[in-house]
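Lab notebook, bench 4. Still working through the backlog of constructs that have no structural model yet. Next entry is a single chain of 178 residues. Request: give me the structure tokens for it.
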Amino acid sequence: MSDIPMQRGQQWLKTLLELTGIPAEIQGDLKTAQSQDGDSPEPDNYWLTIDQTNLTSEQIQLLIGADGSVLDAIQYLVNSVLNLSQSPEEQASYTTELNGYRVKREAEIRALAEAAADEVRFSGREVEIKSLSSAERRQVHTFLKEFGDLETFSRGKEPHRHLVVCPASLEGVRSLEL
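Model written out:
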């Protein structure tokens, strides 16, 4: 892919922040995704990192929000607006980062997934992981996909949707939940 999606993302996010009265530079980084199943290529992921150099701690907290809710909303807007009217081949995936929040949260999510996997293996029962955004649930699904003895699915409706980890032998449970 070209640098055009990266530049569009950087400019759009910079303009959004200027409109909110919090001007900041945006660094871009392309992370090429590896296909999980080998069939369909994953879109490249453009990381848009808000430069915090000239931001106050209050501005950083405001932009991240409670449990990352504002950063998630900004990321949702970036992806929605920039992919609007784009053909599927031209669509890009954007991750918005500030103050290392996404990297730290990814480590927390991985630890949650590993703990749930251990508990399922030990107890033989399903385990629900609550309070995850849809993007975070997708991270857990992707991470635990590599374990053949486990299965994951989501249960409930937003905003009370939860991720469930269960032994792969309980596959019938999933069809009842969907």
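Notes after review: Strands lie at 26-31, 45-50, 93-97, 127-129, 150-155, 162-167. The radius of gyration is 18 Å. Flag for follow-up if needed.
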